[in-house]
Q: What sequence folds into this?
């Protein structure tokens, strides 16, 4: 690919994640988007996959049982001249860390909100991550086919709770059983929910923003209310501002129903006009790496073992930040300096994966990994060494002792632990003195998934016992004296061999600080 075509190819990419509180409709909307992209032919494919009927992999069983989505996957399709990469994120809060890392790999985010519920806790948390990154955020108020809250109330809450300005691109005309359509302010038309007698879905608006006066809808109180709200917002609401959208200060708001496939296409079409193409990444040295730089670079934001249990494979997901990926190319892994040939690569669709030969900045490529990669690794092809910024790690707050139930099965136990820890599914620590394994997690469900996967993927039954510690604090190895350890502050090593104490509670930490005032403890390494 020469410079110009690389440039053009990159400009076509739109890479985003959909964030939401569980049950707001993320899977349903993803599915509609895939339908538009022609990737799935029937609604229900993703849903079926989610419930485990489609591609039945082990941990999806857990999702089925718990009714949650714990995995993230990547889906790519072409639509209206753009190449779209959707990164799915687990909605359950126990998997926030995974979601957090995925959000580092996207250029914008779509926030799906249940219009009956408004802003829910997980939406808020994920929103804050997007805001911190300064990426554009687009809002979809879902489930309009059900009775929900007043649209003005929803938009107010969005602004107040999340601290972002909102610009409604369209507005519901009625809702629930009384849903008539959308007043599409941005495209100056009314989109009918039920097509009229001529099969017409769109009614153009007059110059003053009203419907032609002889249309029966003008007599409808739902239309009149919507129009009044729109007038109010035009006078007192925010102005549409492209720059503010680009910097994440203003979120365009769309209403619709993912289930009824209403308003989703309007959303997608408009979204694509404002969603950004891949942006410049800044590496740790402060160098700007432009997406159309000729040399390839990227970082690994996710590792997933056993995506296909029949193949026992491990996939490292790379976000390409610059240049072009060519299957078989050599890259340098910055952490080790090792040169690795990327010959086994894959890309994902909703229901299949296939070998990828070429990909460019903005795309996500899955690399079959034999243990070379870690989350946060940077790979690059040029002469200039690149290390992208570290991916955030959550400090665990739950800790358990873990051992194999059957002492004769140590090999599969160790293998399973090593692989799942490398994935970032849980954190691993070892007791400084005994070498016993201790796992750390942010949420209890991470342990449950770990236990389930150890059994199903590695045939290792594990026993986990809570150790009653909650706070992890690192200590400078130079300052460490092993006698500082006691029953209230367990001394362990992390995977990099760095020492840390696990404290029972804040009281125990304060007690330690009182006793050793010169020792500096840090929350994160
Ligand atoms: P999630 O991925 O965000 O967790 O949500 P998901 O799409 O799985 O949707 C959660 C539930 O909400 C599903 O119902 C789904 O059918 C429903 N839903 C999604 N969008 C809409 C919408 O626009 N209108 C209405 N009325 N419902 C919607 P479920 O009963 O939990 O699952 P299922 O029985 O449909 O599989």
A:
């Amino acid at each position: 690919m020469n410079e110009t075509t690389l440039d053009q190819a990159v400009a076509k990419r739109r890479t985003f994640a959909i964030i939401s509180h569980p049950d707001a409709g993320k899977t349903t909307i993803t599915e509609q988007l895939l339908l538009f992209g022609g990737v799935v032919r029937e609604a229900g494919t993703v849903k079926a996959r989610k419930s485990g009927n489609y591609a039945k992999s082990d941990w999806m069983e857990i999702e089925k049982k718990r009714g949650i989505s714990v995995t993230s996957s990547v889906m790519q399709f072409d639509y209206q001249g753009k190449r779209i990469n959707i990164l799915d994120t687990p909605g359950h809060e126990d998997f926030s860390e995974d979601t957090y890392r995925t959000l580092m790999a996207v250029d914008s985010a779509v926030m799906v909100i249940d219009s009956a519920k408004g802003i829910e806790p997980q939406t808020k948390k994920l929103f804050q991550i997007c805001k911190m990154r300064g990426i554009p955020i687009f809002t979809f108020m879902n489930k309009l086919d059900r009775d929900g809250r007043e649209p003005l109330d929803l938009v107010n809450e969005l602004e107040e709770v999340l601290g972002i300005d909102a610009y409604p691109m369209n507005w519901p005309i009625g809702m629930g059983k009384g849903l008539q359509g959308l007043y599409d302010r941005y495209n100056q038309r009314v989109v009918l929910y039920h097509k009229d007698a001529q099969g017409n879905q769109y009614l153009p608006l007059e110059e003053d923003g009203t419907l032609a006066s002889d249309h029966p809808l003008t007599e409808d109180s739902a239309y009149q209310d919507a129009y009044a709200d729109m007038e109010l917002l035009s006078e007192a609401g925010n102005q549409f501002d492209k720059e503010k959208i680009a910097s994440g200060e203003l979120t365009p708001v769309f209403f619709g129903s993912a289930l009824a496939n209403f308003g989703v296409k309007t959303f997608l079409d408009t979204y694509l006009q404002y969603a950004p193409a891949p942006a410049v990444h800044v590496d740790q040295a402060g160098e700007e790496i432009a997406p159309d730089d000729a040399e390839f670079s990227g970082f690994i934001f996710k590792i997933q073992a056993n995506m296909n249990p029949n193949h026992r494979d491990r996939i490292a997901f790379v976000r390409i930040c610059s240049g072009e990926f060519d299957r078989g190319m050599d890259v340098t892994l910055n952490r080790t300096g090792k040169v690795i040939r990327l010959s086994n690569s894959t890309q994902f669709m909703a229901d299949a994966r296939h070998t990828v030969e070429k990909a460019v900045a903005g795309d996500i490529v899955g690399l079959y990994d034999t243990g070379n990669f870690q989350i946060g690794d940077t790979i690059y092809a040029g002469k200039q060494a690149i290390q992208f910024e570290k991916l955030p790690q959550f400090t665990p707050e739950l800790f358990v002792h873990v051992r194999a139930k059957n002492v004769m099965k140590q090999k599969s136990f160790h293998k399973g632990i090593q692989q799942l820890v490398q994935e970032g599914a849980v954190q691993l620590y070892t007791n400084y003195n005994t070498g016993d394994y201790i796992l750390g997690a942010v949420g209890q469900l991470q342990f449950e998934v770990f236990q389930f996967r150890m059994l199903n993927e590695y045939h290792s039954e594990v026993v986990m016992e809570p150790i009653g510690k909650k706070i992890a604090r690192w200590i400078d190895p130079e300052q460490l004296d092993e006698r500082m350890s006691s029953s209230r502050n367990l001394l362990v090593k992390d995977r990099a061999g760095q020492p840390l104490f696990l404290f029972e509670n804040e009281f125990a930490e304060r007690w330690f600080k009182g006793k050793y005032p010169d020792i500096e403890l840090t929350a994160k390494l």
